[in-house]
Design brief:
It contains two helices and three strands; from the N terminus they run βαβαβ.
Length: about 60
């Protein structure tokens, strides 16, 4: 059982670099869902779709 099991994780700056790695790791570690925040709307939506294909709920919110 992971510390993230059943939890929703919010990650800012999640459309590249460390933020993207963190959101992907959270999804792989059993989080019930992830919320991606960042400036790159197309990239964020793409990452959210990829994460949802793994069975973890994901959504992107454009923020600066």
């Amino acid at each position: 059982m992971s510390r993230l099991d059943g939890k929703v994780v919010i990650v800012t700056g999640s459309t590249q670099g460390v933020g993207e790695a963190v959101v992907r790791h959270a999804a792989e570690s059993g989080a019930a869902g992830v919320v991606l925040c960042g400036r790159q709307e197309e990239k964020g939506a793409e990452i959210a779709r990829e994460i949802e294909e793994t069975g973890c709920a994901a959504s992107f919110v454009r923020a600066d």
